[in-house]
Amino acid sequence: MAKTKITVRKNITTEKKIEVELPYYYKHDLYSDYGDSVIYGKIDGKTTTSIHEKIDQYGKTSYEIEKGKWSGDGSYFTDEYNSTELEYNKAKERLQEFFNCL
C-alpha cells in the first residue's frame, strides 16, 4: 500500500470574553436573487429566539420561529449583525399579524 500526503484543515476554537448589553439583538440578512430572507434574533444570555422572515419573488411570505438554549456561539456579536430591539419587535409584530390572519 502506497502512502500519500494530503492536506487537512484544523479549526481551533478559542474563547474570548466580550462585554455586551443583554438582551442582545441581531439581524442576519440572507441575500438572495429570489426574494428577501432575514433572521431577526434576540440573545438574553441563557436562551436565543429567532424569527426568520422570508418573502419570495412572488410576494409570498413565510416565517420560521426558533427558541432554544443559547450555546455560547459568538458569531452574531459583530457590527455586521448588530440590530435593535425596535427592529426585532417590528419583525415580531409582522409575525403576529401573519398568524392572526390564519
Quick recap of the structure?
This protein is an alpha+beta fold. Helix content is 16%, strand content 33%.
Question: In what order do the strands lie side by side in the largest sheet?
Answer: 1-2-3-4
Number of strands: 4
- Cα distance, first to last residue? 64 Å
Q: Sheet bearing the most strands, described? A: 4 strands, antiparallel
Dominant shape = extended
Percentage of residues in strands: 25-35%
Mean pLDDT: 92
* Cα-atom radius of gyration: 18 Å
Question: What is the domain tally?
Answer: 1
Q: Give unreliable regions as ranges.
A: none
Q: Helical proportion?
A: 10-25%
Run of helices and strands: EEEEH
Explain what you see.
- A hairpin with a 3-residue loop joins strand 2 (35-43) and strand 3.
- The longest helix has 16 residues, at 85-100.
- The protein has a four-stranded antiparallel beta sheet, with helices on one face.
- The radius of gyration is 18 Å and the shape is extended.
- It has one helix at residues 85-100; strands spanning 24-29, 35-43, 47-56, 61-69.
- The protein has 102 residues and is an alpha+beta fold.
- It has one domain (24-100).
- The model has no long low-confidence stretch (mean pLDDT 92).
- The chain has one helix and four strands, in the order ββββα.
- It starts with 23 loop residues before the first strand and ends with a helix.
